[in-house]
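dumping this here before i forget
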Amino acid sequence: MGMNVSTQGLSLYHYEGCPFCARVRSALENLGLDVELRDIELDAGHREALITATNRRTVPCLRIEDNSGKVSWMHESADIVDYLEKLTEA
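structure:
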């Protein structure tokens, strides 16, 4: 387990029936990371935020807000899993 990895500023846009989302959720679980899950099917606000920011409603999408408040968005489950694994290696 990583040394108290900070997941502050991370949130995962997803929905329950999406296999790629399931892959990312399973990685979160395996890595022991606590990331806010934002379900775009259950919450229209999350869906709108995703579409507004990325011009698409493709999930999974990881919203990354750094300490300065700069926000970036990462699509592609493989990229997200790689990113999360690197967080825990630090």
